[in-house]
Amino acid sequence: MTTVLLRFKYRIYPTVAQQRSIARIFGCARVVFNDGLRLRQDAHERGLPYISDGDLSKMVITEAKKGADRSWLSAAPAAVLQQALADLNAAYRNYFQSISGQRRGPRMGLPRFRSRKDKRQSVRFTSNTRFKVLCNGKLRLPKVGELKVRWSRPLPGTPSSVTVIRDSAGRHFASFVVLVDREPLPGNDREVGIDLGLSDFAVLSDGTKFAAPQFLRRAERKIRRLQRDLARKQRGSSNRAKARQKVARAHARVADTRRDWLHKLSTTIVRESQAVYVEDLAVSGLARTHLAYSVHDAGWAQFTAMLEYKAARYGRTFSKVGRWFPSTRTCSECGLVGGKRALHVRRWTCPCGVTHDRDVNAAKNIRAAGRADLNDRGAQVRPGLVPAQRREAVTRRKSVPSGDADRPGSRTSRGRQLIMPFGADGVRQ
Q1: Using an 8 Å Cβ cutoff, are 263 and 423 in contact?
Q2: Of 301, 306, 307, 366, nearest in space to 332 by CA
Q3: In terms of pTM, does the model score above 0.85?
Q4: Are 66 and 11 in contact (CB under 8 A)?
């Protein structure tokens, strides 16, 4: 039986003293990352050779600790600092592979500096740091101590690393990476195509419809009031910091609720279907239109990623149909491709005499196109991404010119590398 890497995320509750220790480790890792990036930028500007990984480690960690201005780096475990440099090296590799054509997806930019003002901070403790899950259920981290963990589900194996995260709402999480066996489910004959939308979040090819919950719009009134209170606070005051955290918590509650709903829906679909086919939507392009608010509220990309890794874990088939395939304009009965139809047209009649529901017809076409790499209607199906560990390096995309954003063949959606996260954001499935 093959194995996969899964990510398990749990809420942790550090004491005030432990929060200060974690904050110091965040700062040390951030400084090492920025120092390494600055040295390489200076070397490039002066025309000097590229600084190797080993030399960079000696300069920003080993030698820096001996100086008075960086002696406080000893407050963080050495392996954490090395991991910060590993993230920087990975960011440079992504950039070089992107400009050389070896990396798929949109072109990546150079690494950027990490800011202490970022509300989300994270560091990774590898096995070299000798972190340990104790018998009493606590997590022991070097230079931090024993942390209280809320175990929402058991950890299935020995973790290879743990990432400590502090989000914008001030909450702390521990994200473990564990190697576990695949869990193939009993096979069945059901194959579904999924058409994603705004009024109905997902419409299956068998006619099943799931209404869009619109979690952000439901909380819009409360968030608007909190943001109004935040705007009235004086900049730099403690009251403004408290008001900002209230806004962050409200948004975190919306994100958690949406993620929980998406996990439940994706798990149900994968368990009941042998093959799942979806359309490769240009979410980043749609997010620049007048539908941006609703598109971000829907969470299509997150839902598609969940379907992908869960299908790989449970032995199901998953593929994406090319975004230029005319699933809405094609008749699922005769295959006739008609003209464009406005969004308010929800039902239409084909010249062959069949009346179609717009979304159900699109889902049927997606299912038909997903059964082959290239079928008789010319539907392109892109192979699924290979599951891989999520990179934590700080990289940025190179912006796409506005004139090329809508050009056929332009790649405006952000490519991603997936780890196989089971409950990747701490939500029980």
Answers
A1: yes
A2: 366
A3: no
A4: no
